[in-house]
Amino acid sequence: MSHLAILCVRNEGAFLLEWLAHHQAVGFDKFLIFSNDCQDGTDTMLDQLEKMGLVTHVRNEGPYDNGGIQFTALKTAAKHKLTRKADWILPLDVDEFVNIHCGDHTLPALHAAIPDATAITLTWRLFGANGQVRYSPAPVLDTFTKAAPAIMHWPWRSAMFKTLYRNDGTYKKPGVHRPRDLNEKKKADARWFDSNGEPLPEQFVNKRIFSNFSKDNYGLVQLNHYPLGALESYVVKADRGRAVHSDHILGLDYWVERNFNTNEDTSIQSLAAPRSEALQAMLSDETLSNLHNSAVAWRKKQFETLMLKEPFRALFGRLLMTPPSQPVPREAAQFMFHFANRARRANKKKP
After folding, report:
1. 16 in a domain, yes or no?
2. DSSP at 22
3. Which GO terms describe its cellular component (predicted)?
4. d(CA 178, CA 173)
5. Measured between alpha carbons, how far is 241 from 235 in angstroms, rounded to an integer?
6. Residues spanned by the domain of 98
């Protein structure tokens, strides 16, 4: 079976090769990668990777539709020949790493564990900054090993998922968190399962983008999510903006809702050996290695440039003063959900 990963990147060349090496080890055989407005050479790296036969690179230079840069890329991906030919599809971000817990930790093992699935929800596990202040080119998966606990009650974003789905015509387009444009004629054949291998109700076939709260969603597979990095990297990310809404500047709120460091989780090291082998194979190409080093140098220089501006110095200072986030107890989360539900009911009553 062919597995296609779809990725959108901007100025993330320093992290690209580790991400690619890991997902090669997981079992993805096709990569459709979109780049836009890169100053660090990420787009040139992707050109070289395409020459090496490892990825397909598309420059997503606009104009962009109302959904923004990432939605425009996914709209283009829906028509691409790789998407049409793939058996399974998973859109990802460069800070998301598939972490399979069953069998030999590869995609075939996951399919063997859930053979009836046409869609599998991969729930985020949030990994915090782990006390890292300065950016280092050391591997993300070796550096950031502290995460949120397996059971979270708040915020709802901690239960968001990405969807690995069979490309059988049930959905016409890939989406950020779930496939889009359901074919009603094939709806009855859709079989959605969670990352514990349990069947999911019909509402997941249509619209859900987050798993149920207050339970361990990581039995067979999880999606390691590293949205922060070191404080230095977060300042650079704040300048770039959000992946989906690039005009939304990142601040302390985004950081606090994701900087959980309560539990050690090194389970993703199950694929350390094949990941390292794949990475070294890429770095053995002199052109690609030089481009990677240039992207690392750009990231360091960009941080220094941003720190000459007051808003980014202020953000960095606030990050230094902010302790790691603490999980919200069940009772406190229920208190907040009570008001969220009241607000939802009130909005439904409005004319």
Report:
1. no
2. H
3. cytoplasm; membrane
4. 9
5. 10
6. 94-349
